[in-house]
Specification:
19 helices; 24 strands; seven-stranded antiparallel beta sheet; six-stranded antiparallel beta sheet; Rossmann fold; homotetramer; Glutamine Phosphoribosylpyrophosphate, subunit 1, domain 1; alpha+beta
Chain lengths: ~450, ~450, ~450, ~450
């Protein structure tokens, strides 16, 4: 997962990108970067490993002059080459300098890369984003929009992209619209952002989502081009955005994420009518709104059962097993008298490997929980994601390899309820329940997926 | 404010102190330090500016060998000399090496310092803690407890102290017990900590509070001395611990802080029966439990109305005004549809300068709030603290200089309700409502205070 | 200027490259990097701004596993994008991954880049080195040597290159051999280095120089290919290597640099027979050996007249004018009684802008020098270098814009003597005085130079 | 060893102290610090581990405002508590705040410390400097000079001290004058420095040495007090200053260090008349001037035989044995053709443990030296120093435990000549050969030394 934020026609572009990225930090905590430009060919870039607030001190931002800026936060597995792959990238080519930031996963990346390599291309990064630059360099056209159109037509998979080209800002979204990309405005400056909350954060107004298959070119506060790069468009927004990734104050499909989550909780409560419990306890922080919905529907009291310690950071130096265990325990701390002797409905967003849930259940048992009814505001994850979410391979997905009974035993819970897939779609859909990619829950991939990868 | 954590008779003493300090981090985010010893005269210390998790990497902890460790987190105003004043301190004297960490404020510090200076003493730190070391160095006695007893008798004000002397761990609490100090145990190791949650965090059991005026000496897993250094003992625990400082899962006066806060909310609801409102919104994170109590009593729906961005850090390099404003807005973000058009009961813990509350109210107004009824789970702060809490001088306390009507106007709220002082005492007191220092609320200081300071 | 060091077939390749780069540090103090490989496609790279000894701590070197390593030190003007341009570079292409490090300047860089851009190539760096990778990616061949041969044929200008390709180490030198590249061996490992002293430093034996126009491919301790990529070969080694750049213990053209410099001093003394002086004073450290030669021939006493403070470092944060002046004075410190009242022959290596010489002369005057006879162990620099040395444009070369009389006045010296160009060639040439590029002294460029650049 | 630099009545005091410390860096490379004051009680201090140029960036210096500044560079063995012991120290006492920096070793430190501890004093540092502050705090007097006088009378051993007291600068030198302390002036500002070259470095004029047993108090550009704290004065300057420590451009006993060293070389040549050799080779950098003297007297040619690599730094992270060996070899590099087949007189300053000399001789043998005649410009070191020089205990001094024959064998040299002690005194003495402490060479300690320490 990644987050992108872009703004144009603004002398404070880098500082506003900084504010936007702070708001999108939850989408990627590994590295962050900002590139700014706007008056010709000089692109100023700063990127580093770590959190946005640590990387972008005021002095650094002041050096990132330019009226157009794009920013990126990145989540990835640890690797020594990580800084090399931190975005945005800036490339020079026949069209001049171009900066790019990308959220998503290009599924036919290797095929295109092989084709390019055969024709003599070189590659600096292991990232799939670099091939987009190669394709742009290969293509010509009358306008920036035309060049981009030709370049992205061969791409398959998930891609929400932003580019700087001179003082133009360009936004692109793949034909399924897997990853979100919202258009906003503040004064005379257009904004592109992964989530609407980032537009709000800088005081801007949300206008609309970039449409699946759309290319939008903005220059000096005006939309100069808006075109579809393909006719085969079929909205399939990743439903995990509502379930887990997006901030509760962001709007997707015309709906506040918070409201979608409250509804998920209501549906869960409906599914679990037969369960008798004393208290509804959310796993912080994502379970909170679903727990509210559950409590409202069921009438069972919602209680804060855990203190989350925000001071326990992510470590980039691999800690020892002993240290990992010590710090893991400090993150989530039970409030004993909320739990002791109680029949608990525990609300979490999803069940992937099951290892975290197992630890949380064990914490509750140690704190004296009498019964634990685990309720997940999503269906069982049974299939990997190829569109940008870091789900593990099938064999590590607990619901792909164990039966419900086996999972209950593994987790040591008294009951286990997954949100019904249709309920999830209804909660998120705002009347359009079929506009989602639910491949990780139902195995139905909107685009072609290599079988070897699927069964890896 | 500060936090202290100590453990003895444990080969992992520094690592456990680290875990304890992580849990107490909210008590002081400026600097942190750990000193370990246990086999003679070699004391290992590491201290630095910043957060516990940034300062104590595994490699650092491994160098802090020793079976007794004391740790300290410190809150303070910025100053270049801050690292010099970071605790623990280690002093050498006639009794050998002694390490000390301190939570509180010694009110007759200058008088004692002047006396010591006249007799030829030198001072390294501007901290009041150093005079404790001087007094210990001056006194003799048959046992460590006897020496400490003679040394602390002349101290006035607030002091919860922990010492390492060889492989002894010593705990001391002033005769009013202004600041908390809890005794716990894990396996064969005793623990001393500012809050019980830190004892829980490492898997220990809370035994009892150190009593006002008590000195406790622990060695090799045994309490070897427990003595009272004065007969004039009168419990006056700082009630701000329950109102604001302590973690909700800590226990004080035999009561969970969370429960005290829920009761504060109930009493507030009782005081505000006449107010008609649509929704109760807590200021994160301290207002949450009071809001629960308010909602339970009043039947008005509790809604999460703000997203708090935990990625916005505290900056040690002074940012520009522009940057401060940008980041301030990113910290607390309103969820518009919770607020828009609503009559809101806004619950916060206390009102000190009023500037933060003013900003929050303004945020709510911008998000469309129809009415805002500010409810504070404490009385009006009208007098400065001399016992360790960083309240400003009288002239900067809004409730000391403005009438309720003027404050309402300043904050732009429709109504303003402070928790009645007796209700606060009842909520916190567990049947002993008079065992608290409420000087900042009622101006009644348990110990003598210099008039010049009071009216500064 | 840059320095390169490479070694293969050695499990300690990165550590030995580190030792080699320490020895070559004088060739570039801005950034340093090492890439290691040797078992397939995984290349480990570490590069940073700063000095070799600061960048490569033991822990870092241990992570650079691989049996083939290439290292690079770089001198360049300050720029924010400097780290991005630090070498070695690693590229992926049809031939797999290739690492490259480069010393020199490709003069037809822009022409080739334009051709590549037109055919759809993208560029990551502003460095001329990247086009070498592009050319390799474009070409095919039966062997690595054949591919490289086709790739470098179109390059003009100065290039000593080393590559890693799998577990092969490749060395290339341009057809004029502008920049040096020596072949050495230690045990079963071949070494390529900018100077022979770096081979000595790790205990290796110097074998021979890589020939102008030669490509050498080494694998597992064996030279598998040695081919000429062009028939138009004409040795034109940059004579500034002997004058200034190379370490005195390095060997070039079969001659110790030290001996060449001693001879330069002898010739200078011969040219200056008519000058009466009391003492010969070298500017540290490069003037030392020429001063020895001068003293030996003339019989005038050599005296150390300056203390050089090696603790005065280069600053990467731009200091204020005041600070620059303070530190400049601390670098070179006169020993007064060597200078006071004396007629001095001051020996320096070359005169470029004249500003440094002016300061040194002023220092001597302040220390009481009676007469100052400046002797330079090279002719007047009158033309810029396009082959990798950072000489300024013509208008900033003092000898290009001022007459000898004017320079004397500017510098405030009693006499000014440049080493005769033929004497310089004889001193360096070891019997082959015409094998040098002396373009900066005589304006005769061995390869075609763009007139616009020449007259910039 | 340490270096101190102080300046008063100057708005740029900290920057000038920085320049002074850069010049004195050779006296201590471990830590550095500057304290500035001048308008009351606020002392600004910055100190850190590392080199002066790394620690004091312009921004740091700008924060050290004040008209009086004292600076200190420190050499010491590695220890975790090193930063704690970095100087200057600032203490508060009955006289207000006092800053102190110290060069030397107080030999009755423990006796005084025990007395102070018994009377109730506490100690922050393991340094002997702290007791000076204690003594000042104990004493009273009409003037600052009188207070200092009473305070330092009980001190034994070596101490050159500088203090800041308000806007007064105070200098003190022990009654033997073991360590140097020079007085200088620039404009209206007095300077105190360990070496005259530091006074020169900032453009100041050397006035005179502070006399043994003298206290000097300076305020606002005027010497307000100059008094002797004892009548028992007997000049015994550490002769190692001339032999090794001081910069060659510093003046001691009215003589340029360089000239003393040249004379040492002459005397050595006189002692070694019978030796036939081809070349005189100095060990860089301290052997250079003695080698000049030797060459002048003997007529044997002086040749630079080693290249010293100034980029090989001192490491604070303990390197592995393998790494130590690699970097050791890079520091000093032989120029083969100077050495190969030659009979060499190798000039070094002193022989302490013998391990470094052994390595250098081995390097020369490997480079083909035919004969090696080691000449040391000092006598054999046979006794430890208690006055501030880091010589090892007797059992590790090679000349204390081995005969000349055994040393020759250990070092693998053809002959070994120590400078005769009387020759050394004559070279350094400027007509006063008895004004030196030569205890490390002759075992005659000017002050009382504890026998246990002597035979440790």
């Amino acid at each position: 997962m990644c987050g992108i934020f872009a703004i144009e026609n603004n002398v404070d572009s880098a500082t506003l990108a900084f504010a936007g990225l702070i708001t999108l930090q939850h989408r990627g905590e590994e590295s962050a970067g900002i590139t700014a430009n706007g008056d010709g060919n000089t692109y100023n870039t700063h990127k580093a490993m770590g959190l946005v607030s640590q990387i972008f001190k005021e002095k650094v931002l002041n050096n990132l002059s330019g009226k157009v800026a794009i920013g990126h936060v990145r989540y990835s597995t640890h690797s020594e080459s990580s800084l090399l792959n931190a975005q945005p990238f800036v490339y020079n080519c026949i069209h001049g300098n171009i900066a790019v930031a990308h959220n998503g996963n290009i599924t036919n990346f290797e095929k295109i890369k092989n084709r390019l390599a055969k024709s003599g291309s070189i590659f600096n990064h292991t990232s799939d984003t670099e091939i987009v630059a190669h394709l742009i360099a290969e293509n010509t056209g009358k306008t920036t929009g035309q060049i981009i159109k030709k370049s992205v037509q061969s791409l398959e998979g998930a891609f929400s992209l932003v580019f700087i080209h001179g003082n133009k800002l360009i936004g692109v979204r793949d034909s399924f619209g897997f990853r979100p990309l919202a258009l906003g405005k503040i004064d005379n400056s257009y904004i592109l952002a992964s989530e609407t909350s980032a537009i709000d954060a800088i005081g801007g107004k949300f206008i609309r989502d970039i449409k699946p298959g759309e290319i939008i070119v903005i220059e000096n506060g005006k939309i100069t081009e808006s075109l579809q790069f393909t006719k085969k468009v079929k909205e399939k927004l990743c439903i995990f955005e509502q379930v887990y990734f997006s901030r509760p104050d962001s709007i997707l499909c015309g709906r506040n994420i918070k409201d979608a989550r409250v509804d998920m909780g209501r549906y869960l409560a409906q599914q679990m009518k037969h369960i008798k419990a004393d208290v509804v306890v959310p796993v912080p922080d994502t379970g909170l709104f679903s727990a509210q919905g559950f409590s409202q529907y069921s009438g069972i009291d919602l209680q804060i059962g855990f203190i989350r310690n925000h001071y326990v950071g992510r470590s980039f130096i691999k800690p020892s097993q002993k240290m990992r265990e010590i710090t893991a325990k400090l993150k989530l701390f039970p409030i004993k008298d909320v739990i002791n002797g109680k029949r608990i409905v525990l609300i979490d967003d999803s069940l992937v490997r099951g290892t975290t849930a197992q630890k949380i259940v064990s914490t509750l048992r140690n704190a004296g929980a009498k019964e634990i009814h685990l309720a997940l505001s999503s269906p069982a994850v049974i299939s990997p994601c190829f569109y940008g979410i870091d789900t593990p391979i099938k064999s590590k997905l607990i619901a792909a390899v164990k039966s419900v009974e086996e999972i209950k035993e593994f987790l040591n819970v008294d009951s286990l309820t997954f949100l019904d897939i249709n309920n999830m779609k209804k909660a998120c859909g705002n009347g359009k329940p079929n506009n989602f990619c639910c491949a990780c829950f139902d195995g139905k991939y909107p685009s072609k997926i290599d079988k070897n990868k699927l069964n890896a």
